[in-house]
Amino acid sequence: MKKYTNCLVVLLLSCQVSMGQIDKKATRETQALYKNLMKLSENYIVFGHQHATEYGHGWSGDEERSDVKSVTGSHPGVIGIDFSGLSGRPTDAIVRTAEALRKNVVDTYNRGGITTAAWHFSNPASGGGFYWKDSVSVASMALIKPGGSHHENYKAILKTVAGFANSVKANDGTLAPIIFRPFHEFDGDWFWWGKGHTSREDFISVWRFTVSYLRDSLNVHNFIYAFSPDNKFTSEAEFLERYPGNEWVDMVGMDNYGDFGRDGKYNLEAGLKKLKIVSDYAGKAGKLAAFTETGLETIPNPTWWTETLLKTLKAQKMSLAYVLVWRNDTKSPTHFYAPFPGQVSAQDFVKFYNDPYTLFEKDLKDIYK
Asked: What is the tally of helices (H) and strands (E) in the chain?
């Protein structure tokens, strides 16, 4: 047990929809998560790890295991999953994927943790997967928007997503809330929905349709919708270039590996400036903010957690609900972003864990009440 004293006070809040939440029919638990994260972010940040409990460095599918837990004794407070397997493959494979994801989400909720879902969405109109591949990929945002040639196909895909969202029922019968982060890193060109492959107008049209169809037509009321470009902005105006509007977004964020040590290059001043833009805009708009993806692959810097990440997060007054680092691949010896026992940064990560500012799953009390 550690550092909960103030947390308990802010978490025991009445459950009303925040002025910033866009689904006025959101489930009680989703409302509570939104409001409690808003309060927590005033003084703390929750740590997250992508695919933390599905697999890790050298293992896969073990019950109650995560590399983070093996180092600290606690799972991350935020567990990242991906909706990539809910389309673009045979029906039986989608069913198996959904069942495994469902167990993951429900287990996290039953433990009191938080789930966020990225969507590496396989191109619905061409080959190439979710990445843009020249001579293979088709610019599909214009095709899946209302009136487009693949719009009905997109609606069918969203029905699968909605079916999953409405299936994640916990032990007490309630639906587990999910922070849903579609079309991330859209300011780069590496994904087919990226800036070089779709107009601003088509991107916004697809975003608004996605939210409206899930929420208003398919009765998904356990999503918190997160907007997260990569780090290719230096001003609020650039950050908001493809923003669909406050009535279509619950959370604003940023993915940023480039300023935090990727390829040995650090520009923490730039990284901090961008985080401050995200946090400041959220404050003005009444939205949640988060550092939706970051990390240093292989973590060769033994003090990266405290001297790079934590110092930046605490350098100025910001309100960020969580920070999430990317996955630990089960087979690759070098593709990992969180430490495991014996890894060179593990000792520093324990210091990061013990800092009063950071919250892990064991620290989250009544986050859904």
From this structure: 11, 11
**Rg of the Cα trace of the chain?**
19
At residue 96, φ and ψ (nearest 5 deg) are -65, -40
CB 15 within 8 A of CB 35: yes
Structural contact between residues 113 and 366, judged by C-beta atoms closer than 8 angstroms: no
**282/41 Cα distance (integer angstroms):** 11
The separation between the first and the last C-alpha atoms of the chain, rounded to the nearest angstrom, is: 20
Identify whether the C-beta of residue 222 lies closer than 8 Å to the C-beta of residue 178: yes
Cα–Cα dist 99/193, whole Å: 27
Report the DSSP beta bridge partners of residue 125. none
User: Collapsing DSSP states into helix, strand and coil, what is residue 219?
Assistant: coil
pLDDT by residue for the chain (369 residues), tens only, comes to: 444 434 433 343 333 333 579 999 999 999 999 999 999 999 999 999 999 999 999 999 999 999 999 999 999 999 999 999 999 999 999 999 999 999 999 999 999 999 999 999 999 999 999 999 999 999 999 999 999 999 999 999 999 999 999 999 998 899 999 999 999 999 999 999 999 999 999 999 999 999 999 999 999 999 999 999 999 999 999 999 999 999 999 999 999 999 999 999 999 999 999 999 999 999 999 999 999 999 999 999 999 999 999 999 999 999 999 999 999 999 999 999 999 999 999 999 999 999 999 999 999 999 999
Rounded Cα distance, 265 and 272, in Å: 15
Residues 6+ apart with CB under 8 A from 358: 44, 45, 46, 47, 310, 352
DSSP H helical ranges for 240-319: 268-285, 311-315
Burial class (CB in 10 A: 0-12, 13-18, 19+), 265: exposed
Q: Could you give the count of Cα atoms lying within 13 Å of 268 in the half-sphere of its Cβ? A: 12
Backbone angles phi, psi at 6, to 5 degrees: -75, -30
Q: Evaluate whether 289 touches 227 at the Cβ level (below 8 Å).
A: no
Active site residues: 185, 293
The span from the CA of 53 to the CA of 114, in Å, is: 12
For the record, the structure tokens of 318 come out as 């910001």
Instruction: Tell me how far apart the alpha carbons of residues 202 and 125 are, in angstroms, rounded to a whole number.
Output: 15
